[in-house]
């Protein structure tokens, strides 16, 4: 799960205003279920010979190039790529001046097998010591077969650093034309990085978890992720637990292919980590790992690590907290995680919690159900300004929950919402789409969701913290 939150301290005024704004609609005005009927593109695969999956020309050419943040504060990137014929060069040449590569960093190279699939040579290279708010060029490959890319580092970590994130989930482009539309829209949105809320290649939907689908997915998204950091969180399609195939290790392909800077936030698991980027503190949680108290990478780590608390924060996870997703699909799957983490979210004043998994869009009001326990019968989320016995009644303490598993999955949309619409649900629509979160300064941000197929800006929300 990926969560976006504002913690205590300098970002608190921003969070507070946001809550005030949203609460003015609160539970007085009913939520809205969109009646929009989208034009159905078939949820079928793009043929693998389509140009979007093209293998770069040349012997052992680097492919599936992708970058993510490489440290806690945004002054490093991890550059990853794959070669197939041989390991090739493990060096990244980089510079802030185009074509004048004065710096070198070395990658670690690994590979894996999964049933009858053998991966290429996966390179992960940490490039650190970068300047904030700077453009860097990098080159990978060997001899005449080299490829060049660039990326922009974020501004310094500061409550007033503006930054625009794209939020994408369940992006199945090995894949469908819906996903192609999502990526095109994101690349036109001005998003500077992506919060990816899980479910990547959907290789597990193919016979014997066809590993070549991981490769085609990597080539498909390269056009964006080679140039800007995507912040990864794992979904259920990454588990790939198949003891019947002799593959009992969960997340095998995902963990080999997608590096995260987890050690920078003192985590023991690459699927649980925290980073700061511009004015955001981002926490990535894993919906499919042990997370209750006393588990090494779960609640104990999240609740006690200084990297996770007392800072300005956003968070990601894969499946929605059940109370805050009113779609029939996957309803209640996230209840155990809500029971463990919601109190912590409220105490740490998390602002926004993003989840994927459900193939539709939904946004909640500012709500909390932390007062509920199995003996008091209060199993009902309350809006932000109601007093309860568990926390102080300050209006700024509850998060907004946003489900964005609408990137364009293979299975099709989740079109059946529970009726009537729960009071906590502000807006819901079963369309493919993409979101952006634009952090302006310590007091204001814009969140917007666009459906893909008509390009209409459906909902824009001013967040005042
Ligand atoms: Fe999922």
TrEMBL record:
What residue stretches are annotated with the Calcineurin-like phosphoesterase domain?
Answer: 177-361
What reaction gets catalysed by this protein?
a phosphate monoester + H2O = an alcohol + phosphate
The organism named in the record is: Spirodela intermedia (Intermediate duckweed)
This protein's UniProt keywords: Glycoprotein, Hydrolase, Iron, Metal-binding, Signal, Zinc
Residues forming the Purple acid phosphatase N-terminal domain are 62-153
What is the protein name given in its UniProt record? Purple acid phosphatase
Q: Which EC class is the enzyme in?
A: hydrolase
User: What Gene3D superfamilies does the record tag this protein with?
Assistant: 3.60.21.10, Purple acid phosphatase-like, N-terminal (2.60.40.380)
- Entry similarity comment: Belongs to the metallophosphoesterase superfamily. Purple acid phosphatase family.
The protein's matches in Pfam families, at most eight in alphabetical order, are given as:
Metallophos, Metallophos_C, Pur_ac_phosph_N
């Amino acid at each position: 799960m990926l969560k976006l939150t504002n913690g205590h301290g300098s970002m608190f005024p921003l969070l507070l205003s946001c809550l005030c704004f949203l609460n003015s609609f609160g539970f007085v005005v009913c939520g809205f279920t969109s009646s929009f009927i989208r034009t159905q593109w078939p949820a079928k695969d793009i043929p693998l010979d389509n140009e979007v999956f093209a293998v770069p020309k040349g012997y052992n050419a680097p492919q599936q190039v992708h970058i993510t943040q490489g440290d806690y504060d945004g002054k490093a990137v991890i550059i990853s790529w794959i070669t197939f014929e041989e390991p090739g060069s493990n060096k990244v040449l980089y510079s802030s001046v185009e074509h004048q590569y004065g710096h070198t960093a070395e990658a670690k190279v690994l590979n894996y097998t999964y049933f009858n699939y053998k991966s290429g040579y996966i390179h992960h290279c940490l490039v650190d010591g970068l300047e904030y708010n700077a453009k860097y060029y990098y080159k990978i490959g060997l001899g005449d077969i080299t490829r060049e890319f660039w990326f922009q580092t974020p501004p310094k970590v500061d409550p007033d650093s503006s930054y625009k994130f794209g939020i994408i989930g369940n992006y199945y482009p090995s894949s469908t034309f819906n996903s192609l539309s999502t990526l095109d829209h994101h690349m036109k949105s001005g998003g500077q990085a992506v919060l990816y809320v899980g479910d990547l290649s959907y290789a597990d939907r193919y016979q014997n978890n066809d590993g070549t689908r991981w490769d085609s997915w990597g080539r498909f998204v390269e056009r964006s992720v080679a140039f800007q950091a995507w912040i990864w969180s794992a979904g259920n399609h990454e588990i790939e637990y198949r003891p019947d195939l002799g593959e009992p290790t969960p997340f095998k392909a995902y963990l080999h292919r997608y590096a995260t800077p987890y050690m920078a936030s003192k985590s023991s698991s690459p699927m649980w980590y925290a980073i700061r980027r511009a004015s955001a503190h981002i926490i990535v949680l894993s919906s499919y790992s042990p997370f209750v108290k006393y588990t090494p990478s779960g609640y104990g780590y999240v609740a006690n690590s200084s990297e996770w608390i007392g800072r300005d924060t956003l968070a990601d996870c894969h499946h929605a907290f059940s109370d805050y997703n009113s779609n029939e699909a996957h309803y209640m799957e996230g209840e155990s995680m809500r029971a463990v983490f919601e109190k912590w979210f409220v105490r740490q004043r998390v602002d926004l919690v993003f989840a994927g998994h459900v193939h539709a869009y939904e946004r909640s009001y500012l709500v909390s159900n932390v007062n509920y326990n199995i003996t008091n019968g209060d199993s009902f989320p309350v809006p932000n300004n109601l007093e309860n016995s568990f926390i102080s009644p300050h209006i700024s303490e509850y998060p907004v929950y946003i489900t964005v598993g609408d990137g364009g999955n293979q299975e099709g949309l989740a079109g059946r919402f529970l009726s009537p619409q729960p009071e906590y649900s502000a807006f819901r629509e079963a369309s493919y789409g993409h979101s952006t979160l634009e952090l302006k300064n310590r007091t204001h941000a814009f969140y917007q969701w666009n459906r893909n197929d008509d390009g209409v800006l459906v909902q824009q929300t001013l967040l005042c913290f």
